[in-house]
Amino acid sequence: MTLIVRSESPTPERSTVWLEGRLDANTFTDLDDALRDITPMVDNNGTLVLDLSQLEYISSAGLRSLAQLRKQMHDRGGRTLLLNPQPQVKKVFDIVKAVPVKEVFASVAELDQYLDHIQRTVSGQN
Amino acid sequence: MVLRSIASRLALGVLVGSAIVLIVTGGLLLSHTRGQMLRQAQSEAAAVSDAAATRIQGRIDAVAKVAQVVAGVLSTRRDQAPGVIHDILAVNPELVDISAAFVPRDVNHLRPEDAPVARRDGDGRLVAADRLSDPEPYWSSPWFVRGLNCDHGCWQPPFRSAAREETLIGYSVAIPGKDVPVIGVADATISLGWLQQLLGELAKPEHASAFVADANGDFLAHDWRSYIGTRGSKPLLQAIANKQNPVRITPEDGGRVSEPVWVYFVPIRGTRWTFGLSMPERQVLADLRHTYYIDVLLGVLALMGVSLITLVITRRLMAPLTVLADRAENVSRGDLDFVLPEVRRNDDVGRLTRAFDQMRHQLAGHIDTAQRIARDQARMTSELEIAGQIQLALIPDPHWITDDGSLEVHAALRPASAVGGDLYMYFPLGTRHVCVMVGDVSDKGIPAALFMARTITLARTIATHARSPSDILGTLNRELCKGNDTCMFVTLLCGVIETETGLLSLASAGHEQPVLHAGGSAILVDVETGPALGLDREAEYPVRVLSLLGGDTLLMYTDGVSEAHAGNQRLYGTHALLDSVGRIDEGASPETYVDRVLEDVDAYTAGAPAYDDIALLVLTWHDTGAEGARIHAVVHS
User: Fold this and answer.
1) How far apart are CA A73 and CA A79, in angstroms?
2) CB pair distance less than 8 Å for B443 and A96
3) Distance between CA atoms of B599 and B580, rounded to whole angstroms?
4) Which of the residues A71, A89, B59, B105 has the least number of beta carbons within 10 Å of its own beta carbon?
5) How many Å apart are CA B431 and CA B267, to the nearest integer?
6) Residue B197: other Cβ atoms inside 10 A
């Protein structure tokens, strides 16, 4: 099994990456390589969304990759949000908790709602 | 074998190919030349025939002239006939006789002057005679009648002279009269011996034979004397009649010949004679055959020469290739130290030689590299083995039982490769507590092994100052988060048992839930987990407390057990694990649990290489306060 990484043309504010297949010890470097090109295009306070609806399996090596990505984005003031993981992947997130629960969303609507909320909070502060 | 060399195969190929070309063109040439030779023979024969005919014609024209002169003179001087013919014969030595025959004035009173004859006898003397003594009356004989009707002269049929033993032929001209149209016939006779002689004198092609035939097809003269006086064969007569010139006559056609012959003929003007030249076809073509054989011989010599030159040139050109072929065998034996032929020209062979040389050097480089890599790999393997041993030295012995016999622990660690990221741990905390841990570092291999070593070392240090698994995990997490840019993390299940009471506190950092085998059934212990260690500095780890009863057994394991699979098989799963544990007799030793679970997992993966590291720790609480448990404790100690 392999991993396919696709991305829409990223914008500074928000960029979405689709993962398809298995993210494990054999394929996490593919994700790392692909994101090395994508993350620099996202603005410092931007949001990177990983759409996991086609991701069938994730291993601890894959979790490490996601954690590292999240850390990189976080260091630049950005966010990494996970969208619509399949149940078995969601379960891994739940157990290992390598990713905070509040950064995992079951649908685009939920994600948009969250982002609206964040923006309102930021404007409110301003 | 000789043909193993390309040079000799090429030479043979050239020889065979050229031979085929030579045979085909030779055949065409032969056919063409044959026609040409026949035409040439024909024109040659025609020239000879024309010349012969002209000579014959000249000769007989002279005879005719004599006869005409005699006739002219005697038309007014009948009475002087004997004298005239005698005198004329005297000045024409080629003539055999001259006769003058007049229509008799009175048949009953013939006079010698009516038919005088002047003859030349065998000795050349002239004799005067007459025709009165002819067996048949001359005036009624065919030649006389024919002569009377021949105003301008004509040739009589040849006849055989018994006296001279020769074939003679006469030319007759009618003698005109003053009152009547004709009064007699003047006749000059020659021997055909000159004709025969003339045939012999002709410059004929070799093997050709000449003949002269009269209007009936009878041979007047022939190089084959026995043919003289006989009649020509049917095909010959037909050809003459049809003017089919030249004609090929074969024995099969009815010709009087022993082999196919070509006959060329020309009519002799002023006569109804035909001059012919007969040549055997074999002889006509003999020269051709001879020439052809010489040509073929020369051709074969030329071919052999060309082949030899091809062989020599190719050998010289291919010589370096032979050396290269030998050297290639050297290379296949692994011998790269050899001398290559000197490159003299920049042709294909030169390029090949240079490429071969480059290949040799590159190959030598590759072999060096491969050997170095192989050495490096061997060193790596050896280092990994040592690393694996060091890693195993970090974890405690598989089996341990507390001094008071209340707690027995058995564990197993099976890295998927030389080193792995799974770990187990147990150690006493003070005198009344024991800490057990099972963990799984994210990822595999050397990074995981180093992170595992760090985890174990930190855990040992930290745990000595803590009593609760929550504290242990919290502190360990904060330590592991330090400088963890690679975001390595470890899931860890930590338990602390109070050895006097069997009170078990559990905390999980993202780890698999443990299995409790108690009261004959196996269940998952639901422990609320915090995040895996190394990711979130603020993480907290809630504690779940269980009270163990005597004989209760707890299994802690990593996902190498629950996610074991072979190929595309389904994962082993916690249900299978619960089944496996549930089938184990209550009161079995922790070692039995470990062995049975590993056996079942191995049976499921059917000998496929392990996908992930496996760590398994089984602890059994022997309640020292209960009778039964004490007995078990004795058995296991």
Assistant:
1) 6
2) no
3) 10
4) B105
5) 157
6) 11
Geometric angle at alpha carbon B472, from B469 and B474, rounded to 5°: 105
User: What's the confidence (pLDDT) of residue B632?
Assistant: 40
Helix, strand or coil, per DSSP, at residue B419: coil
Q: Report the C-alpha gap between A115 and A121 in whole angstroms.
A: 10
Q: Name the helix (H) or strand (E) containing B247.
A: strand B247-249
List, for residues B379-404, the tens digit of each pLDDT value. 999 999 999 899 989 999 999 999 88
**8 Å CB contact of A96 and B489:** yes
Chain centroid to Cα B284, Å, comes to: 46
Distance (Å, whole) CA B298 – CA B81: 75
For B507-545, what is each residue's pLDDT tens digit? Answer: 999 999 999 999 889 999 999 999 999 988 899 999 999
Residues of A in contact with B539 (CB under 8 A): 97
**Is the CB of residue B500 less than 8 Å from the CB of residue B478?**
no
Q: For B346, what's the count of Cα atoms within 13 Å in the CB-facing half-sphere?
A: 0
Q: Where are the alpha helices (DSSP H) in B257-280?
A: none
Helix (H) or strand (E) holding B593: helix B590-605
Give the residues across from B533 on adjacent strands. Answer: B490
B-chain residue closest to A92, CA distance:
B510
Taking the C-alpha atoms of residue B274 and residue B219, their distance in angstroms, rounded to an integer, is: 9
Nearest CA in chain B to A100: B531
Nearest CA in chain A to B440: A60
Least CB–CB distance from B510: residue in A71, A96, A100: A96
> What is the pairing mode between strands B182-191 and B95-102?
antiparallel
Paired tokens of B492: 């860890």
Q: Is the pLDDT of residue A99 over 90?
A: no
The CB-side HSE value for B63 (13 A sphere, CA atoms) comes to 30
Question: In this structure, which long-range contacts are made by residues B601-607, counting pairs with CB atoms below 8 Å and at least 24 apart in sequence?
Answer: B601/B561, B601/B564, B601/B572, B604/B564, B604/B565, B604/B566, B604/B569, B604/B572, B604/B576, B605/B564, B605/B565, B605/B566, B605/B569, B605/B572, B606/B566
The terminus-to-terminus CA distance of chain A in angstroms comes to 48
